[in-house]
Amino acid sequence: MVAETPRARIAADRITMGCGSLSSLRLAGVAASFAAALLTGVAGAQSADSAKRADVPAFFQSQDPIEVTFTTNIGKIRGDKRENPPWRPATLTYRGTEGNLVTVPVKARTRGIWRLKMCEFPPLRLNFSKETSKGTIFHKLDKPKLVSYCHDMDSYEQYILQEYQLYRIYQLLTPVSHKARLLKFAYADSSDGKVRARRYGIVMEEPSALAARLGGSLIAQKGARASDLDPLQDALFGVFQYFIGNTDFSVAGLHNVELFFSSRGDVMPIAYDFDFAGAVNARYAVPDSTLRLLSVRQRLFRGYCTDAESYGKAFAAFNQKKPEIYALYSDSIGKLMDRGTVKETLRYFDEFYDTINNQRAAKRSIIESCIGRN
Description:
Structural class: alpha+beta
Number of helices: 11
Distance between the termini: 32 Å
Shape: globular
Helix content: 25-40%
Strand content: 15-25%
Oligomer: single chain
Strand order of the largest sheet: 1-2-3-4-5-7-6
């Protein structure tokens, strides 16, 4: 979750405003060899001008939060807190369409920094084999992240549900975002067969799969500025972060941000990891002290500056999608959430809409508060 100190992250945003630019990536007819030199290995060795769109795995085409038993040696995996932890053997078991139990061998290892140190159960990365996952619901998944529970408490499970809702909202606003799926996990210990916890978890689309789905690649180079980015996606990214009350990111530092390089030569920021957002309001989440915010519920726009037209289009997108956004909190997933949490969240969203639909408030809180303004 937190991959660098907040102070270093904010300093990166300030310093890189005067650093070298990635703008050359957006020049028409950019050479494929030059583009490939800046693409992350995560996206494969595929150049942006020859990339083909990949199909979305069936796993992410369903929103059904089926029950899955995750079995591994929990004692050992909890102890894996060092760098480069080992892959641990595990299995995922679910009930098939005909009622039969399907067990899929998988490997798992810990990831992250803050949650790895602080949580009762660590966040994980799963590792599927093409051979053993074929014919199962996990077919075509490779090494997705599992956002697991932090503590075996109802309040912490609400944080998982709320973060999942934010991924769903982001998908409503733009396809340039991660797909995610909620599952109800039973966490079983292979040492004795006992289930230690039953909690919801989120399986995330991998960055490489996202890039393949959109027909482009990812950029690993840090130091991106506003002038490097597609103006509309830049505005939508920043306004979305403001909407959810998130300041735990850095475009320049690639902290909780990925940069997608499209086949048209556009560079687009993609947000992820929202547990420090005000909309989630986790008890452990605190804003960086240098931002002088009283709590994560206090919004602060930390997006890059872009043109007024792009901000206007971003505001219009939020207004257009408002009914669908609010409907997420009364559908089958929304009904899993505590009613008080839902009401509190929608009131929080109401405050955002009051801001963007008031010209003076939008100008003061967003347009004139952007990073990079002279």
